[in-house]
């Protein structure tokens, strides 16, 4: 166990960490914070939800010179929501030291950001495309940078941000420390590390599995056309507090959201084609639990830390093992329990096995829940509601009525009737989703579908099909489109592209 006091950090930072409620450092923090404080370049890999933000946040904040109004630290993140979240966490860590971290991301009025930059942030947390915009306008200068962090470095490469990253890193001429963090570190990171890092130390926490143990991982083998009904049944039976449902494409997310709403669930969708204000709105509704289901593409798979997410449903099996790791990692964070459930069509089973091999985890098979399971689930939910209401204070005004009723009817009959009335009938409103072709494992010489894999080649080089491309330059979008067309040929997809 490592206490934050064991690190060589300022009293201000210790106070900030304590007011964040952190007592012991997590394993990645215990290893990465001392190395980071020594100024070493480092690559940090640890499972989802294990505190990597603070692992780079503390060394970064500690290094900031508060007497200078220059931007001294840059964090790059693949998505806008993550850039915002990381800035919030850094503002908490730097609160007592008086350090200001500003998020810089696409989709937000650039003039607003230019105005905010006048407040002289010492750190910026940015998406690559928008940072380059500011560099070109000279509204951000990187000539006093001493620390660079690439959060979710592998994802930024997956998204085709390599040119932007090279441009940004190449523009930092001052002596600086570079830190790369992610739960997954595929080999292609090496080229980036070789080019832009100075003898980086690799910091990994010792675990065989790529996913945390506190997530119960399940899958259900189900034909494509039954997936929506199965999802509805699962939502009824498991009644998650907060759930994220991942779909493969933007269109899929829209259709799923509509379908869920039709059946009476409180759900909203998020993907890269929505306006930033809509995306912010959905995240806000979900965080404050006004809605309890967020339907998302992989744009929400990385880094997002929303407390209270109890369930992750992969409505569509993810494109590759890394994506699986990050998606399910939206639950089971900071030691909490979580459950993930992946719907797998019969032709995608080999894909699931490949995920198990790469992540070194067993994903437990569950059978398709039946209609009577749903009824039982709904009865249980009704019972829980009744119990909760009975324990609350605001039922006093009903007590006289209850006493009168109890004079006529016995208590067991009365409670049975209350449960019956509260038990929701399963909603079977018809919902039609455009069907999509199953994913297939691409076979190569070294990599057969069901064979045990010595590496995860065949996945690594794939481009994800649905990402937030909005922060990217047009040229890259075209490149991505070409890539998608190529992929479509490889996988025989029917073109439900992002
Ligand atoms: N030492 C700690 N003690 C308790 N909670 C912590 C500690 N460090 C971080 N946390 C909390 O753990 C949660 C997950 O942290 P964080 O988002 O940094 O994880 P991560 O490793 O970056 O995950 P991901 O790979 O999904 O990005 C956050 O809510 C954070 O506040
Ligand atoms: Mg993170």
From TrEMBL:
SMART domains xrefs: DEXDc, HELICc
Residue ranges, compositional bias (Basic residues): 440-455, 475-498
Gene Ontology cellular component annotations, sorted alphabetically: cytosol
Gene Ontology molecular function, alphabetical: ATP binding; hydrolase activity; RNA binding; RNA helicase activity
DEAD-box RNA helicase Q domain span: 2-30
Species this protein is from: Salinibacillus kushneri
Catalytic activity: ATP + H2O = ADP + phosphate + H(+)
Keyword list, A-Z: ATP-binding, Cytoplasm, Helicase, Hydrolase, Nucleotide-binding
Residue ranges constituting the Helicase ATP-binding domain according to the UniProt record: 33-203
UniProt motif (Q motif) ranges: 2-30
Protein name (Swiss-Prot/TrEMBL): ATP-dependent RNA helicase CshA
Residue stretches of biased makeup (Basic and acidic residues): 458-474
PANTHER family to which the protein is assigned, alphabetical: ATP-DEPENDENT RNA HELICASE DBPA, ATP-DEPENDENT RNA HELICASE RHLE-RELATED
Region (Disordered): 440-498
Record domain Helicase C-terminal: where: 214-376
Family note: Belongs to the DEAD box helicase family.
EC number: 3.6.4.13
InterPro entries the record matches: DEAD/DEAH_box_helicase_dom, DEAD/DEAH_RhlB, DEAD_box_RNA_helicase, Helicase_ATP-bd, Helicase_C-like, P-loop_NTPase, RNA-helicase_DEAD-box_CS, RNA_helicase_DEAD_Q_motif
